[in-house]
Amino acid sequence: MMAYKLIALDLDDTLLTSQKTISDYNKQAIKQALNEGIKVVLCSGRTHNAVIKFAKQLNITGSEQYMITNGGAIIENMDGKIIYQEMMSNAFYHEFVDFVKSHNLHYNVVDNHGNTYTSSEEWLDKYTIMQAFENANGLYLKEPSDLPDDFEIVKAIINGSGTELDAISDMVHDHFDHDYFVVRTGVGFLEIFPQHVNKGTAIQKLAQKLDIDLSEVMAMGDRDNDLPMLKIVGKGIAMENAVPELKKMADFVTADNNHSGVGLAIEKFSL
Questions:
Q1: In this structure, is residue 1 part of a structural domain?
Q2: How many CA atoms lie within 13 A of 227 on its CB side?
Q3: Contact 186/226 with Cβ under 8 angstroms?
Q4: What gap in Å lies between CA 68 and CA 11, rounded to an integer?
Q5: Per-residue model confidence as pLDDT tens digits over 4-56
Q6: Domain final position from 167, 194, 221
Q7: Which of 10, 12, 13, 111 is catalytic?
Q8: Looking at the domain assignment, is residue 132 inside a domain?
Q9: Is 152 helix (H, G, I), strand (E, B) or coil?
């Protein structure tokens, strides 16, 4: 059996059940992996506040443990020290808001403190409210011009139902792909990151820091934004509930998120 030294786990619809909880089976497998000296890294599109609470449930703590947030834009240790971050400028923020307003789309952006910003003339999209609730840092109704010239963001999100995002996805890719990384991260969220920011790049940077070869890394996920990390690691695992493209390229397909697929895969390949 390959001795994996780092396990990277997506959160939503991977480690978490549909009720946004961690099963006892998953908790026990992760506890055993940590006890054996394996790094367990939560790797999510969520912000710090929306990830740290789950890390605490799993007793992933201290300066020698890490988490990846904002889709790979920030790597930090569990004492809150930033190891790496990449941001987007206020100029991009202006361009993005001009684009969404010209197409009557709903949006929010997030800064590196987990604050959520949007502007609305009539009503707030429910996915924007969900984002702000998860971030637990408040929702600010501001235009880009209301913020300092040096204001930066870690990601920009276009919100809408699955059908609405399907209808505009090609248009958004056509407009932003040349300079940015555009990816669906979940129901209601089409997200834009700096061009080279993704979970795969973040895992690569963290593995280099820890002197761990990528062949010694296992990663699990369920959606398009997990593709970059599953492609580069030694063992890429898709959930049974994953999108077809991810399942097709994965090294292994485990059980779904509601049946402790993470814990089963950890036991099968790492313990």
A1: no
A2: 15
A3: no
A4: 11
A5: 999 999 999 999 999 999 999 999 999 999 999 999 999 998 889 889 999 99
A6: 194
A7: 10
A8: yes
A9: coil
